[in-house]
Structures are given as C-alpha cells and as structure tokens.
Design brief:
alpha/beta; Rossmann fold; six-stranded parallel β-sheet
Amino acid sequence: MKVAYFLDVFPKLSETFILNEIIELKKLGLDIIIFSLARPDEEVMHQEAAQLLKDTHYPDNITLSERVYAHLNLLIHNPLRYLKAFWFAYSRDAAAFSKFKRAAHYALELKKVGVEHIHAHFAAAASEYAMLISMISGIPYSFTVHAYDLFIKPRLIREKAHFSEFVVSKTDFNRRFIRERYAGVDESKLHLVHLGINTEKFALAGSCRDKETPFTILSVARLIEKKGLRYLFEACSILDKQGLSNFICKIIGDGPLKNDLEDLAWGLGLKHRVEFLGSLTIDEVIFKLGGADVFVLPCVVAKDGDIDGMPNVLLEAMALERPVISTYVSGIPELIRDGAGILVPPEDPETLAQAINKIYLMTPESKKEMGQKGREIIEREFNIVQETKKLQNLFLATIK
C-alpha cells in the first residue's frame, strides 16, 4: 500500500514520534512518500531522518506552469469533483483558497504515482492540504491530532473530520475534547492510537550512571512556556536552600525562551546547579536519560492556552526505567499511573521539590521498582509495533 504523509516540517528534532511511526510503517511493508510543506531549519538531524530525505518532497521546486497544468488537467478529467473542491475552498477564506491553488499539483502527483491514502500529522496546514487534495483527487485521507492544533490554533476541525476517513488521537483526553468541543463530529471516526516506543531501542542495559556523579535531574524539552521549566528551576532553588547539596539539573533542548530561562536559573543562584546542553540527537538523549536519577517534565497550560498532549519523551524515559515526575495536565495521567512515577499539580514548585526529594531519598530498590513499572506500561500499551499495526489496519480499511 502506498501512503503519502503530509507534514508541516520534516524532519524536526522535537517530532521523533512522526519519524518513528514512518520507520515502523515501512518495516510493515507500506510504501511511504513524505511531503513536507517547509524545509527544516535545525542544524542537528537524527540519523534515521537523514536516511528518509530521499523520499521527501519539498514545495520549493514546483513551478507556476506545473501548478497551472495540474489545475487544467484535474478540471478536464473530473470537473464536478474539481469544482466542488474549488467552491469549498473559495467559500471558506483566503487561506483555504491559497492552499487549494497549491493542492492541485500535489493531487496530480499523488494520482500519477498511485498513492492510495493520504495521512497528515497535526490538524493544521498539513491536514488542510490533505483534505483539499483528497477532495480534488478522490484519494482518501486521515490525520492525527496532537496539542496546539486542537487547543491554540484549531482550524476547520469539524470540516477536516467530516471529509476524512478517520481521525487519530494519541490520548483519550484529546478524543473527549473533540467530542465535546465539536458537536456533530462522527464519533466512530475518532480512533485512539497511542504514541509508540521502540522498546528494543529504549532498553536500559544496567545503569549508565557513574556512582561518583551528583544526583542528576534531567529534562528534555523545547524551551517554551508549556514545558514548565521555570517551575523546575524554582523547585531546584527550594531544594538548594533546604540543603540538598549533591544534585545537578540538566536541560536538553532549545527554543525561544532559552535566554529567559538561563537568566531565571542564574537569578535563582543555580549557575552551579543547572546545565543547558542544547539540542541533541536521539542516541545522545538516550545516553543522557540512562545516566539520570529522575526525569522531570513539569508541564503547564501556557497563558495562550497551549498545552501538551502526552510528551513523547516521558514514554522514552519510562521505557528506560527512569523514575519520572510530571503534572496533572492533559493526557499525562493516562501514562503516569499505578506507581510508575509521580504526578504533581502544575505551577507548584513546592510540591515539585517534594517529589524530587522523595525520589532522592528512595532506596535503589524502590527506584528500580518504579522504573520497572513504567517500563511495563510502555511495553503493554505504548509498544510501537502494536500501535503502528493499529494505524496500518486503519489505512488498509480505506482501500475500496
């Protein structure tokens, strides 16, 4: 089966879950063609992503004459379908019509190469292109919803769901949100397919820690508000003032708040406690996770309403049997439960400090037990093989 993946940007360091999904689908025998609406601007790239660049198409090499030819070809061969799509886009707004003008070229290309299904990630631009291409070409499509695309910049969600074959949600929280917010959406189209983890790749063969190193708190995140890192630093400041002397906090990731977070950490007197490591490859992240005593991601609801769904790095840390601490936000409680970690209220550095101290005081046996419980949840419910097979079956069911 040949499937076209439409993505806003590919590859992207913070979206390894999409990369992993594509790799696993290819292992299952699907022919995946990637269409990225923009080129990446990150200097660091995962090795697996670099290997997929040969299968990735970017829009900057499409000429005006090619676009005009595509529109004329599709209009002549199926005028009714073309005009319905034209009117849909024209009657919505300028943004939809602008995408329609570009979508015809994609539609013709997909028909030429025999694409049988279109899938997009995020209910944003990529899924809008997928919808319009499907309208023009008749190729069925689906899309996966995540977080900001639902909570911050929802666009034509009801229409996208209506015209799609199915909608994938990574959390039950998001699925309930769609049902409650968008009345009339066909609930039978909403499918829960968890984020998947390669449990063989994320397997800890003993601790990577040097026993002489300090107690290591690790967080991996884009440096943006919803990750709640300011509260982690405030918690570290509390621990420092309480006399917890032998610890260090390491931050992997980059983002627009880097300077602000550095200033905050230094202002709290944590220059000797906090290390900013920047962006790292997935193999480097795995190594750092293996050397951490606790993984902390204190997610919050940002002032603009932005919110995480279920951060993939929490799954990675749990697969590596690390004790984890996060917050009661969005779909995170669906993951961290049954003694597999600790949840605290968002924006609560005092309780967060208590949770970190609790891990600090745990016996090695208790830490190991918590880590093993996390690993068991990942193996049972978030295994990439079983979750990707669910997605594959949904794709196959669309073939008429």
